[in-house]
Amino acid sequence: MVNLLSSPVRLGRGGPRSSGSMPTSKVRKRYWITFAVMLALALVFGFGLLAWDNPMPVGSQGFWIIAKMRAGTILAMIVVAACQAIATVSFQTVTNNRLITPSIMGFEALYRVVQTGAVFFLGIAGITFFTGIGQFALQVAIMVALSVALYGWLLSGKLGNIQIMLLVGIIIGTGLGSVATFMQRLLTPSEFDVLTARLFGSMTNAEMSYMPLAIPLVLVAGGYLVASSKKLNILALGQETTINLGLNHRRETMVSLFFISILMAVSTALVGPLTFLGFLVATLAYQLADTYDHRYIYPMAFLTGFVVLAGSYFIMKNIFYAQGVVGIIIEAVGGITFLIFILRKGRL
Amino acid sequence: MITLNDVHKKYSSTVAIGPVTLQIPTGGITALVGPNGAGKSTMLTMVGRLLGIDSGTIEVAGYDVATTNSKDLAKIVSILRQENHFVTRLTVRQLVGFGRYPHSKGRLTKDDEAIISRSIDFLDLGELEGRYLDELSGGQRQRAYVAMVLAQDTDTVLLDEPLNNLDMKHSVVMMSHLKRAAEELNRTIVIVLHDINFAGHYADYICAMKNGQVVEFGTPERIMNDEILTNVFETPISVIDGPKGPLAVYY
C-alpha cells in the first residue's frame, strides 16, 4: 500500500515544486516590479498634488504651510482608495462575480436620497444643516443598517441565495434613485445647483472633521478583510468547495459583507458616489497582480486606487480647473484603460 | 463506513428523497446508479453536508455530518461536485494545494507540498502542474479536481459524476486512477455513475436508486442481472457475458 505521506516525491525540473501564490519566479518578479512602479507613481502624484502650482520654493516654510492645507485631500484619497479597493475586491470574491461592484447595492442611491431629501425638506439651509460628523455618522449607520438588513434577510432564509440578494439590492437601489430624481424635479434651480455639487463624487466634499471617525472604521473593516485573505481565497472557489474545505460559508459571507458595507458607506458618505472606481480598480489590480491570492491583490488594488484618484484629481485641478470632481475623469480615462487591458489580455 | 439512518428530504409534496437507510462499507468503490432524477446526486451532497436533511441521521466514519464541526469533517470526508467553475484563475498545482486547506489553513508546510506533489503525480498531472486550468482539456481539468480532493487526504471521497463529459479513453483512465486510489491509498470512494457498465466493471459495490429510494445494494455480480437492472432503469436491459465480465445491453 502506498501512502500519500511516505512515498517518494518526484522532483520538478526547475528546483523544488511549490504551490505558492505565484506559479513561477517570473510572475513573482513581474508582480514586485509592477508594485514598485505603482508605488513610485503614487508617490509622484502625491508629491505632485502638494508641490504643483505651489508658489513657494520646495522645502521652504511657506511650501509646507501650503502643502499642509492640501494634505487633507490626499488623506481623503488614501481613505477612499482603501475603502473602494478592499470593498470591491472582497465583494467580487464573496459573490463569485468579477463584473459587479458593491456600489450597485443601493449605497449611492441612498446617499442621493439623503442629500436630496435634506435640500427638498429643509431648502438650501438643509445642505449646511446636513454637515458635521453627526450627519456623517448617521449616513454611514443608515447605509450599513440597510445593507445588513438586506444581507441578513436574504442570505439566511431558506432560499438564501446571493443572486437573489444582488437582484433585490439593485432593485432597491433603482427605486431609491427614482425617489431622489423625483424630489430633484421639484427643487428650485438654485437649490438644485447647490445639490448637484454634492452628488458628483468629489474629493473636496471630504471634510477633515469626518476623519476621526472614518479612519478607525476603515482600519477595523479593512483590517479584518485583509487579515482574512486566506479565507477569502477559499470563498472565491464557490460555496460547495468552501464547505467541502471546512469553512462555514454563510457565516464568512455575512461577516465579509458586513465589513464591505462599512467600507462602502464610509467612502460614499465621505466623497459621494464613485460608481466606477471600485470596479476599475479591482479589475486593473487583477490584471496587474496576476495571482489569486488576496494578500497580493489588496495592496495592488489599493495602490491602483490611489494612483487613479490622485491622477484624475491632478488632471481635473490643473488642466480643467474643476477642482475635485474626479468621477468624470475616472469614468472616461479609467474606462478606456480598462478596455485596453481586457482587449490585450482577452480575459478578466 | 457511511451510515444513513432513515434519511428524509422533502422538496415538494410530490418530490422527496427517502426514507433512505443504507450502510456503505469501508474501502473500495461504491457506485450510485439509477435513472435521472432518482436522487443519486442529492444523496451524495447530503452525505457531503452540502445539503441539509429534514430528518434522520447520516454518519461518516462514526461522525454525524449534521452536528460535527465542519472543519473537522473536512479531514474525514471530501466531496467533488459535478460542475466546477472558479472565477479565480489557478494553476493545477495551486488548485490541488487548496485541497490541503483543512490541514494547513493556507500555510503550506513541506509535508503539505509533498502530499500535493504525490496527488498530482498520482493522476499523471506532473507535466501540467504549472498550467492554468483554463488551458486544460475537460479530461485534464477533471483529473485536477480529483487530485485536489485526494490531496485533502480524507478516508472517504465522494465524487458526483466525475465521468461527465469525458470520452471513452478519459473515462477509463479516470476510473483506473480511482480504482488505484481506493486500493493503494485505502480510500472509500462513493461515486455517482451514469454508465452501468463502468459501475459493473470498476465498482466493488453498486447502490441502485429509483424515485428517491435505494432499491438495490450489492456486489456487481448480484446487481448486473436482467431483472434488477430492467426494474431499476425502467427500460429493457439484458446482461450478456462480455470479454471482461458482464455487460449490460440496453439498446
UniProtKB/TrEMBL annotation, chain A:
The keyword Oxidoreductase does not apply. GO terms for molecular function: transmembrane transporter activity. Residues 1-24 are annotated as: Disordered. One of its GO terms (biological process) is siderophore-iron import into cell. It is a multi-pass membrane protein. It holds the Pfam family FecCD. One of its GO terms (cellular component) is plasma membrane. The keyword Transport applies. It comes from the Bacteria. Residues 1-11 have a biased composition (Low complexity). Keywords: Cell membrane, Membrane, Transmembrane, Transmembrane helix, Transport. It is found in: Cell membrane. The chain crosses the membrane at residues 31-51, 71-89, 109-130, 136-154, 166-188, 208-227, 257-284, 296-315, 320-343. SUPFAM superfamilies: ABC transporter involved in vitamin B12 uptake, BtuC (SSF81345). Gene3D superfamilies: ABC transporter involved in vitamin B12 uptake, BtuC (1.10.3470.10). Belongs to the binding-protein-dependent transport system permease family. FecCD subfamily. PANTHER family: FERRIC ENTEROBACTIN TRANSPORT SYSTEM PERMEASE PROTEIN, PETROBACTIN IMPORT SYSTEM PERMEASE PROTEIN YCLO. This is Enterochelin ABC transporter permease. It comes from Glutamicibacter uratoxydans.
UniProtKB/TrEMBL annotation, chain B:
One of its GO terms (cellular component) is plasma membrane. It comes from Glutamicibacter uratoxydans (Arthrobacter uratoxydans). Signal peptide: none annotated. The keyword Nucleotide-binding applies. Coiled coil: none annotated. PROSITE patterns: ABC_TRANSPORTER_2. This is Iron ABC transporter ATP-binding protein. One of its GO terms (molecular function) is ATP hydrolysis activity. One of its GO terms (biological process) is iron ion transport. PANTHER family: IRON(3+)-HYDROXAMATE IMPORT ATP-BINDING PROTEIN FHUC (PTHR42771), PETROBACTIN IMPORT ATP-BINDING PROTEIN YCLP (PTHR42771:SF3). Residues 2-236 form the ABC transporter domain. It is found in: Cell membrane. Keywords: ATP-binding, Cell membrane, Ion transport, Iron, Iron transport, Membrane, Nucleotide-binding, Transport. It is a peripheral membrane protein. Its main location: membrane. The keyword Membrane applies.
